[in-house]
Amino acid sequence: xxxxxxxxxxxxxxxxxxxxxxxxxxxxxxxxxxxxxxxxxxxxxxxxxxxxxxxxxxxxxxxxxxxxxxxxxxxxxxxxxxxxxxxxxxxxxxxxxxxxxxxxxxxxxxxxxxxxxxxxxxxxxxxxxxxxxxxxxxxxxxxxxxxxxxxxxxxxxxxxxxxxxxxxxxxxxxxxxxxxxxxxxxxxxxxxxxxxxxxxxxxxxxxxxxxxxxxxxxxxxxxxxxxxxxxxxxxxxxxxxxxxxxxxxxxxxxxxxxxxxxxxxxxxxxxxxxxxxxxxxxxxxxxxxxxxxxxxxxxxxxxxxxxxxxxxxxxxxxxxxxxxxxxxxxxxxxxxxxxxxxxxxxxxxxxxxxxxxxxxxxxxxxxxxxxxxxxxxxxxxxxxxxxxxxxxxxxxxxxxxxxxx
Length: 405
Hints:
This protein is 43% helix and 15% strand. It is α/β, with parallel strands linked by helices. The chain has 2 domains: 21-195 and 374-404, Glycogen Phosphorylase B (Rossmann fold), CATH 3.40.50.2000; 203-370, 3-Layer(aba) Sandwich (Rossmann fold). The strands form 3 sheets. It has a 7-stranded parallel β-sheet with strand order 3-2-1-6-7-8-9. A 6-stranded parallel β-sheet has the order 12-11-10-13-14-15, sandwiched between helices. Helix 8 packs across helix 12 and helix 11 (304-311) crosses helix 13 (356-370). The chain is elongated, with a radius of gyration of 23 Å.
C-alpha cells in the first residue's frame, strides 16, 4: 500500500479540484480602453487567450470602452491625472469593487498598474486571504527627470517596494528591468516576456502605395511608433533628426502615435511625417512599409512596438538602456545606440542606411526572432505560473494555520 504524506495528499486534492474547475482570475489595470497604450494592447491579447482557454476572468479599471458591451470589464470611479490628461487615477479604496469581486469569487488577483487601484487590490487580497500577483508594465520611477520632480524617483521606489513586495509574484517582461528591480529591493520576480501577433505584424503588409501617398517613395523610411511624450526620449530623436537632415536628403522620418507634446515635436522636426494614432491594418502597413525602426526610449519595461517592428521585418535601432535593449542582439537582430545621445543615434542610423545588405539581413534575423515569441506560448507560461503561485500560497496558509493552532 502507498502511504502519502499530508503535503502530498493536499497537493493531490488541489490537482483534482483544478481539474474540475479552472481558476478564476480578477485583473486590475490603469486603463482598458482598446488601443489606449501598449499595456492595454497586451491585456486585450490576454483576454483573447483567457477566452480560448475558458478561464473565468473579470477586469477593473478607471478607464473602459464607452460602448459598455463587455460586462466582464468594470469601471471604477476616478479623477484626472494632472501630468497626463489621457489617464485617470482611480479613487482610492476597496469599496468601489469589493461587492463585484465577492460575487465573482476569484482564486487570484493580478494587478497591472501600481496606481491607487492596484494598491487597493493588494490590500483586499491580504484581507481576503487571496494570492495576488503583478506585472511590471510601466517604468514610472524613470519619468521623474522628464518632469523636473527628482524627489518623485526615490518616493516611487519606496512605494513600489511596498506594493510589489506584497505580491506573491512580480512578472517582468525584460531581463534588464528585472535586474534593475532586483537592485531596488523588489522580491519574488519572474521573467515572462511579452509576445507578438505575427499575422497582424508581418512583412507581407508592405505597401509601395503607402509610401507614394506620403510622398516618401525613393527614400529610406525611418519609423517611430509610440506615445508622443518626453519620457520616450523624443528630444533625442528630434536632435538626431536635425543632425541627419543637415547631412543628407534621402531620409524620411515617419512618426505614428499621438500625445501632448505633438505640436512642440512637429516644430522640432520640420519635414517629418506625423500620422497620429493608427491601429489595425493601418498600423501593420506603416511598420511593414518602412525600412528602419528608430526607438530612443530608455524608459520601456519591454517595448511592444520594438518587437512589432521586428515581426514586420524591420531592423530596430534602440537605446542601450531599458526594456527594448533586451530584445536586441546587437549587430545581429538590430543595433543599440548610446542612451540619450543624439549623435550616436544618428551615426547608428547612418550605418544601416549606408549598408542596405546589412540592413536587410538584420531585418531577416529580427523577423526570425519575433516569430518565436507567440502570445500563446507567453500566456501559457503565465497560467502555469498562476498554478504554482496558488499551490505555494495554499501550502503557506496550511503551515501558518497549523502553527497558529
